[in-house]
């Protein structure tokens, strides 16, 4: 089933990838020749190039990774003797980082051309407004450069630390804090360059607080750090079956991008246009490299993504949402991850024994995945309170529990993947990945609707509501 | 001789490191309490903390690196059966990066306090001049933030790529271009944020050119990219004996820092003060982590530094010198590396066979290093032109050549380390490292004197000459 990927591209692949790369390069060049340099189109082209580069490099570098010891076996396959390259998300991260670094030139292109009189004399700066004739969509203030760079530094940091995790196999309780380190650049630059730590209070709370804005001060940094820790880790623990790390990331990125597009297509330029352009510039290339990875990681997987990818994906979401000031929207889109984390806590905090791997159990006879279980020996029964809690969860259909003569035999492991199998019965690996992904998509779409339709109930204005901002 | 380092710190080491860390932390806190936040003192404290952190982590993580396959044997020792941790420079790089990221807060501290009215309202910005009473030394313009961040991104990139090199053992002809990739962030941000591509022409050329400044345009970027490629690689090829990679880097960093201090101690604030403060902020923590590495890499080495360190060191020099606009000074300090590179070209470009390793030959009987040689079989004699060139070099004492009956027997390998051994005779590894380091130091000091005393002959004004700038 799961075969090691050939380190060379097939003829069709080479043709398709080269074709894509050429088309992207041509559009990119032409958009510059027209003096347009429309950043969004450029971003799409860069994303196409990033897809092609990642796709090819994942194939070419597979054996190199295996030789360096970055390899693993697929535990949910019948024939799993040989090793597959592990940590291929590192390739995506590096391609992504170089793409986004080169891309910086584009949104600032107009500013550079306008602001420099020939030989790069930066003293003569004309107001961009005078020259700009297009929509606000074109505009990208120069002050955003620091955001751009701090976002890149945080993503760099998470790549280095994530790669270290994959290589050195850091313990779970240590690696939980890896994203905290990577959040430092983001928080430091946020502090230096923005320092906005106020949030809008819901209307029903405003009479009590006596104000509309609440300055959280240091707490705001704690909140941002918590989000930086949670998002990457939450992606990392919803894992274990082929493709699931990548598909959930693609869904979240696509929904964030959809949300951005809503702001860019309002009849009048929206004040948050810049933030959402910024967000799109980071999300589109991420989608590019993720699809390249998915092509190799989808069932039956020919490569593994590694913790690097999960951390990296989670961090991309955090940097765009923090620097774009829509972190609450991100939380809304992470609902399945939040559920999975909360649901996992009994095992994460060792209230229930937690085996090294909790991925669904592969039944080699049927070829289907079944919920994996924690077995309870007769002499190592859970605490009576735990037994009662387990029974309650089982009654609520939040657990599969097997008891015999008053003794707990086995309980399913506390992950959303196992729970889904409890609900829906055994199924093949790719079907499980598809269903979970669809669930993430439907919940996310629903979340966005709630976000924009119902926000007016608890906040004075929705970001998409123009009456209050025009 | 060379023993694997103990993964725990001795009691004395723990005491000393903790003491150092506490002292640094106390000074740091007190300087903030005084409302001073003097960035240079803070930078020294951060460097001390970086030293302590690297020192401890090099010890703690040694076995982890060995287990992950990052290990090597010391070829110049009698008892070299066991493996030493390789690539420990990666630890230094990561510690350095996090140090410098957190440090960003300091130079901007005053600006933040001044510019924000309480709750982080960035709209009310007061001119820093009104509040600042101290010397210009205190001042750090906010516009420097982008330089800071782009420098960090370049260093991040070189760390990722250098680590990839150490892990995947990339071929020489490919890895030569690794720094080129890492230079992209620097060049992109330079283009976006500065765009100054003019250089001052030497006075004797000015009548011919009819101007004082020459705009190099694109060529300036080629020049910067070339420097980015050369500096890291030149450190990387002056390697092969215990400690030499670190000591040469320390000497270059110290001389650059000395050069910076010259600008900060002029009787009147020098216009380039900011650039040189910026440079010091990057060099001091680099010295911190380098000394921690040297303590373990000096003869007899207990860890190896890896290509990561060499690339990283070279890139630190490039970013400070490019963003500080003193790249010519860097070239002056890299003279031994330039000589080593030019001298190596016959082998690098395969005019003379180039063995995998060209490090000096260890004579196990005497315990001394001797020049390593390329042997010429009677039926594989060099081309007559090459023979003539070899003889010329030998006569100039730039080569040791052994001939017998008109046939070339062996010629010493083309590295400065072997040449030094040809000149000075066999010597112990640490003595060779010391002598080469001293040579680098003396040449560098001489270079700085030439730079500041003789610059007036070919340029209208020296940077340290104040008559023209006050």
UniProtKB/TrEMBL annotation, chains A, B:
Pfam families the UniProt entry points to: Glycos_transf_4
Catalytic activity field: a di-trans,poly-cis-dolichyl phosphate + UDP-N-acetyl-alpha-D-glucosamine = an N-acetyl-alpha-D-glucosaminyl-diphospho-di-trans,poly-cis-dolichol + UMP
A GO term for molecular function: UDP-N-acetylglucosamine-dolichyl-phosphate N-acetylglucosaminephosphotransferase activity
Localization per Swiss-Prot or TrEMBL: Endoplasmic reticulum membrane
Repressor recorded as keyword: no
GO process annotations (BP): dolichol-linked oligosaccharide biosynthetic process
UniProt keyword list: Endoplasmic reticulum, Glycosyltransferase, Magnesium, Membrane, Metal-binding, Transferase, Transmembrane, Transmembrane helix
EC numbers on record: 2.7.8.15
Role, per record: UDP-N-acetylglucosamine--dolichyl-phosphate N-acetylglucosaminephosphotransferase that operates in the biosynthetic pathway of dolichol-linked oligosaccharides, the glycan precursors employed in protein asparagine (N)-glycosylation. The assembly of dolichol-linked oligosaccharides begins on the cytosolic side of the endoplasmic reticulum membrane and finishes in its lumen. The sequential addition of sugars to dolichol pyrophosphate produces dolichol-linked oligosaccharides containing fourteen sugars, including two GlcNAcs, nine mannoses and three glucoses.
Family according to the record: Belongs to the glycosyltransferase 4 family.
Protein name: UDP-N-acetylglucosamine--dolichyl-phosphate N-acetylglucosaminephosphotransferase
Organism of provenance: Monosporascus ibericus
């Amino acid at each position: 089933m799961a075969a090691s990927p050939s380190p060379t591209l097939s003829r069709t692949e080479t043709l398709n990838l080269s074709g894509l790369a050429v088309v992207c390069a041509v559009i990119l060049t032409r958009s510059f020749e027209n003096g347009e340099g429309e950043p969004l189109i450029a971003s799409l082209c860069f994303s196409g190039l990033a897809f092609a580069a990642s796709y090819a490099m994942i194939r070419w570098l597979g054996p190199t990774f295996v030789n360096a010891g970055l390899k693993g076996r697929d535990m949910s396959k019948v024939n799993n003797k040989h090793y597959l390259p592990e940590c291929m998300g590192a390739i995506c991260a590096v391609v992504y980082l170089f793409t986004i670094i080169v891309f910086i030139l584009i949104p600032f292109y107009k500013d550079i051309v306008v602001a420099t009189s020939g030989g790069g004399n930066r003293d003569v700066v004309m107001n961009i407004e005078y020259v700009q004739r297009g929509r606000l969509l074109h505009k990208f203030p120069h002050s955003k450069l620091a955001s751009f760079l701090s976002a890149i530094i945080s993503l760099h940091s998470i790549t280095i630390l994530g790669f270290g995790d994959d290589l050195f196999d850091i313990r779970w309780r240590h690696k939980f804090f890896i994203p905290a380190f990577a959040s430092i650049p983001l928080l430091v630059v946020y502090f230096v360059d923005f320092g906005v730590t106020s949030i809008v209070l819901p209307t029903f709370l405003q009479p009590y607080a006596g104000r509309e804005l609440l300055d959280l001060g240091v707490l705001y940094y704690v909140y941002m750090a918590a989000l930086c820790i949670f998002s990457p880790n939450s992606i990392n623990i919803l894992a274990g079956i082929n493709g699931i790390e990548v598909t959930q990331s693609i869904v979240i990125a696509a929904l964030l991008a959809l949300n951005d597009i809503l702001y860019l297509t309002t009849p009048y330029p929206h004040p948050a246009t810049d933030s959402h352009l910024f967000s799109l510039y980071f999300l589109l290339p991420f989608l590019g490299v993720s699809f390249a990875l998915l092509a190799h990681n989808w069932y039956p997987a020919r490569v593994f993504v590694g913790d690097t990818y999960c951390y990296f994906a989670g961090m991309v979401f955090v940097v765009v949402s923090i620097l774009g000031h829509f972190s609450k929207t991100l939380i809304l889109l992470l609902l399945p991850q939040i559920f999975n984390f909360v649901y996992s806590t009994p095992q994460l905090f060792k209230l229930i024994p937690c085996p090294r791997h909790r991925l669904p159990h592969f039944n080699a006879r049927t070829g289907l995945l079944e919920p994996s279980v924690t077995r309870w020996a007769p002499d190592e029964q859970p605490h009576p309170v735990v037994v009662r809690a387990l029974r309650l969860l089982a009654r609520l259909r939040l657990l599969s529990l097997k008891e015999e003569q008053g003794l707990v035999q086995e309980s399913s492991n506390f992950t959303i993947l196992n729970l889904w199998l409890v609900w829906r019965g055994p199924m093949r690996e790719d079907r499980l990945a598809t269903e979970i992904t669809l669930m993430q998509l439907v919940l996310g779409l629903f979340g966005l609707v709630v976000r924009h339709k119902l926000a007016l109930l608890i906040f004075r204005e929705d970001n998409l509501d123009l009456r209050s901002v025009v």
